[in-house]
Amino acid sequence: MKIALAQFNPVVGDLSANAAKIREIYSRAVEQQVELLILPELAVCGYPPEDLLYKNHFVEDNRLELESLAADCRDLTMIVGFAEGRDDMIYNSAAVLQDGAVGQIYRKALLPNYGVFDERRYFHPGSEPLVANVKGIGVAITICEDIWSPVWLLDYLKNAPDFQILANISASPFHTGKFGLRAEMIRKYATDFNAAVCYCNLVGGQDEIVFDGRSIIFDSKGKIQAQGKAFEQDMIIADVLSEDSGVKVVSQHPTPTLPGDEIDEIYQALILGTRDYTAKNNFKKALVGLSGGIDSSVVACIAVAAMGAENVTGITMPSKFSSADTKTDARKLAENLGIDFMELPIQSIVDDFDGCLQSVAGWDNTSIAYENLQARVRGTMLMTLSNQFGAIVLVSSNKSETAVGYSTLYGDTAGGFSVIKDVAKTVVYKLADRINQLARTEIIPASVITRPPTAELRDDQKDSDSLPEYELLDAILKGYIEQDKSAQELVAQGLPADDVLRVIKMVDMNEYKRRQCPPGIKITAKAFGRDRRLPITNHYRPKI
Amino acid sequence: MKIALAQFNPVVGDLSANAAKIREIYSRAVEQQVELLILPELAVCGYPPEDLLYKNHFVEDNRLELESLAADCRDLTMIVGFAEGRDDMIYNSAAVLQDGAVGQIYRKALLPNYGVFDERRYFHPGSEPLVANVKGIGVAITICEDIWSPVWLLDYLKNAPDFQILANISASPFHTGKFGLRAEMIRKYATDFNAAVCYCNLVGGQDEIVFDGRSIIFDSKGKIQAQGKAFEQDMIIADVLSEDSGVKVVSQHPTPTLPGDEIDEIYQALILGTRDYTAKNNFKKALVGLSGGIDSSVVACIAVAAMGAENVTGITMPSKFSSADTKTDARKLAENLGIDFMELPIQSIVDDFDGCLQSVAGWDNTSIAYENLQARVRGTMLMTLSNQFGAIVLVSSNKSETAVGYSTLYGDTAGGFSVIKDVAKTVVYKLADRINQLARTEIIPASVITRPPTAELRDDQKDSDSLPEYELLDAILKGYIEQDKSAQELVAQGLPADDVLRVIKMVDMNEYKRRQCPPGIKITAKAFGRDRRLPITNHYRPKI
């Protein structure tokens, strides 16, 4: 049997456009004599539809699109994800479209409700396995989370009818390291069930998450026989042949070039996340505030890769604390990238605020308030240009500073999308090196990479005046945020107690700032946003 | 048996302080010869602890506090909520503290995972009823959601041992109209089970939610015999006497003055929510931008009621579009409230931005960008003062404008807490009237209430230039947001199709703005924030 896995990029809520894309995929599959076409989880409505599912008319509209797909796509069997309303419940379901009608339906049994997932908020769990018969071949259907509990799945499918293919349709958000885990877990099912395993994953950016594609087909020996591209739409076609000893898979798909390492993965995820957030929200143009520092330089490079140099404008807004070097570097970067560049000095505006504030008893223009004022004047300037020209402001705050609140709310955090919000400062450096390597030229000036980090909001300021060195900071943050370790555990692993306590307090105290930051792309196992839900009002304190 | 229901105000995460408050309550109860003391859901750690529950050390610390409470509070039986870690699961549990030890434990069976609730994210459901024996009286213990499904509860307790008291410990977030529903539902259990019902609810503000207290004791005839205060800490004491025909309750608690109507309720909820958010986050002082309009006037009144006139500063920031009338009204309001008042004109700063932007091709100082610029200069000014003086900025955006995005991000939305974020404009007017009635004087000048609403960001601007009249707008918003109705349903109920489509589009398009707005107090069945989770990237469109 010839099967195809179509990893495609739907838009949440765009029911008829998603259905149109599926029809187009169907046509291509039919041309290639495909007999079974598999599409990802919730392909009709996009993932995650969130509270759209509370709207009865949304669930109804998604059913109508499914029925119309069934009617139109008669020349093969299709397995496609949709949101199923039934008896006042909603299920995360996979429909088997066959012979012009919606045939059997499988309902996802395991509903993730951790991390970025809220599936128990909406869906009722299914409880019955389904093995569809496609041209005499048994296809056991599962949806995403169903395969993430191997012990449960083996038990669940124990009494199911015989099958030669285990299909899984997924919308599995990317984070670094996940692909290896996922592939290894799936591989085992091939031998456990003596079946081919077809894993079809979504592709695309949706708000804070990115789906990485990389669909896979294993033969029943657990060998990868076909694989989809990473971070791109793709259709993998293969022949699946049931033999006495097992299931053979003969790929008709070229082997894709996959990311070489974690930094490659992150870079591609950030480009796709930025491209899709901007395009799906109808932004053609972007503005990036260029400080001459490493964060904004990397963000500008990602913006160019995602949107094209002709659509990105770099804006530098020097104050009296901006050095000649950073001003030069901002301009040089813009030249290297071939983007529009504007210099809008802010000092006179800051001075005017300062003058106005002289009437206020207690105003001190050497305080942190004055530092933040400069950042807010810049934020206001960028947002004014954004409003005037309909261009989105891309924010350059990294995860390290977002964690400890080393940023000015409505200042450097102001904008529509926060590209490197989940990228630790130490990883930003690696991205900068990689960007220059890939370009085989110094896109980001070397001085940007070697200069000690500074916010330039007062004379001779260095990040290290306020924060531990980034290597240490990032180690503490990884343990505290991504692994939920206590201060005691972090100290026990060798991190200095003073810094651990100081950093944890900064993280906890700055929850209010993060709550008002723009969305940004998740690339780690735990990002700020839906992934990590902490109260602002929280008196729990670290102790050692 | 003498029982007490202690509705108290814990702080999330403040384990030892919460335990200290419980000890203090215990001492008072012992003085009054109380034999059974009932405290609310998750009293030890506060509600909701959210992702703090992912930290093993947090759950462990909360267990240690519980054990120390048990050891210290030997002179009566206590039922108290805590987060229970057990066999790699976490339960939302109620411990019976008796004879110096943690005795039986009841585990919440129904875990809400809708609206503001994420309990399935953390907790494993219990499955066994528990009837504790306290001095020979059977006390069936339930936790919050357990009593919100009457059919389920009757079945769940069907085979439980005999009980004379049904106890429910809750952390039930306030919204208008909920109290009546809740009381009616609880009342029925009294007669269904022929038992007294003791409902003990939390009090206090926690980020976006407010718990309203109003604990109740019903006798087995379904008559309210004792009731706690609304929006205040309180301890209700009563004798519960088991008789042949049922359970008698003799209150020793004075009947509290409860809110007279919905507007009273809302006003009290907003005061408590503001007081607790500011106090629990260590703000003594607040700043309110006073435009001379109704929203900021009402917010200033709430701030004064919550924090004291001596802790509130009103700041007016006129531009060339500010009328003499609104400037006068801002000043008059401040005088009436007895708060500090500052006038900081912004026109020269706006002009300076404008001058700087003249160098940008395409800049238009008659555009909406220029309107937003003014709001952002004000936001920057307020935040600068906030940083300088450690005072929180209270935001005055109402629910109607938050819904349709009739606000400037980082402008009038800038601040730490958004007091009337869930209050529709039409309700803001009712609050203004009520505030003046309660004060028996015109605190809010009549002209503020009668003037047609205007943002004063250009000449002769009126809200009605951009929006439907507020009566109509609020009707559409209630149907669309709180009831999830479709455009078709709204039109079918008699609302004009053009306005319905226009408003729905505005609501959908402005999700990105709401995502960056400060937290504010939930007072309706569906507030913006955790309560309503919609994707920013969303192409689902209304149709008629």
Cα Rg of chain A = 26 Å
How is the biggest beta sheet of chain A arranged?
A: 7 strands, mixed
Strand content of chain A: 15-25%
What distance lies between the first and last C-alpha atoms of chain A, to the nearest angstrom?
Answer: 62 Å
| Number of helical elements of chain A | 18
CATH-defined fold name of the largest domain in chain A: Nitrilase/N-carbamoyl-D-aminoacid amidohydrolase
* Arithmetic mean of pLDDT of chain A: 97
How many separate structural domains of chain A? Answer: 2
Count of extended strands of chain A = 20
What oligomeric state do these chains adopt?
homodimer
Which structural class best describes the helix and strand composition of chain A?
alpha/beta
Low-confidence stretches of chain A: none
Largest interface: which pair? A-B, 86 and 86 residues
* Spatial strand arrangement across the major sheet of chain A: 5-4-3-2-1-14-15
CATH C-level class of the largest domain in chain A: Alpha Beta
Q: At CATH's second level, what is the architecture of the largest domain in chain A?
A: 4-Layer Sandwich
Helix content of chain A: 25-40%
